[in-house]
């Protein structure tokens, strides 16, 4: 971050917005692309006792690790948002390792003898033999 007039997100496709806080204007994550969870300390269940500036400094798009995936984008506060990385890990879907290879993020590749159908509306990969 190089100031309020220029901001370059680390994750391409993520969206950030200037929001007022006790310390002035700060950039806050509002959307992360598929494969990521938006981590914001002010999400329900987060530690609301932290100062707003501290919360904003901890905002980020956290990529689901290998063996898991997230096919829907994160949109604060509605979908795929968490107060911490520990909580974000629980939002990533477990890969069906007997049917697919999941390299983390939104990467789900059907194994030999399987094919991938349309994803479910709630973001689950469907795999068929």
Write the layout of secondary structure elements.
Blueprint: E1 15-21, E2 24-32, E3 36-39, H1 52-57, E4 60-63, E5 68-69, E6 74-75, E7 81-82, H2 85-91, E8 93-94, E9 100-104, E10 107-110, E11 115-116, E12 127-128
Parallel strand pairs: 3-7
Antiparallel strand pairs: 1-2, 2-6, 3-4, 5-8, 9-10, 11-12
Structure description:
The chain has helices at residues 52-57, 85-91, and strands at 15-21, 24-32, 36-39, 60-63, 68-69, 74-75, 81-82, 93-94, 100-104, 107-110, 115-116, 127-128. It is mostly beta strands and 129 residues long. The protein has a 3-stranded antiparallel sheet with strand order 1-2-6. A 3-stranded mixed sheet has the order 4-3-7. Strands 5-8 form a two-stranded antiparallel ribbon. The longest helix has 7 residues, at 85-91. The radius of gyration is 17 Å and the shape is elongated.
């Amino acid at each position: 971050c190089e100031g309020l007039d220029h901001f370059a997100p680390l994750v391409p496709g993520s969206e950030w917005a200037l929001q007022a806080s006790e310390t002035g204007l700060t950039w806050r994550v509002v959307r992360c692309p598929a494969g990521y969870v938006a981590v914001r300390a002010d999400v329900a269940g987060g530690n609301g006792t932290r100062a707003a500036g501290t919360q904003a400094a901890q905002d980020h798009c956290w990529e689901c690790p290998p063996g898991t995936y997230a096919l829907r984008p994160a949109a604060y506060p509605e979908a795929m948002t968490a107060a911490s990385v520990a909580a974000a890990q629980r939002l990533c879907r477990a890969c069906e390792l007997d049917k697919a290879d999941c390299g983390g993020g939104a990467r789900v590749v059907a194994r030999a003898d399987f094919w991938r159908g349309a994803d479910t509306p709630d973001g689950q990969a469907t795999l068929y033999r």
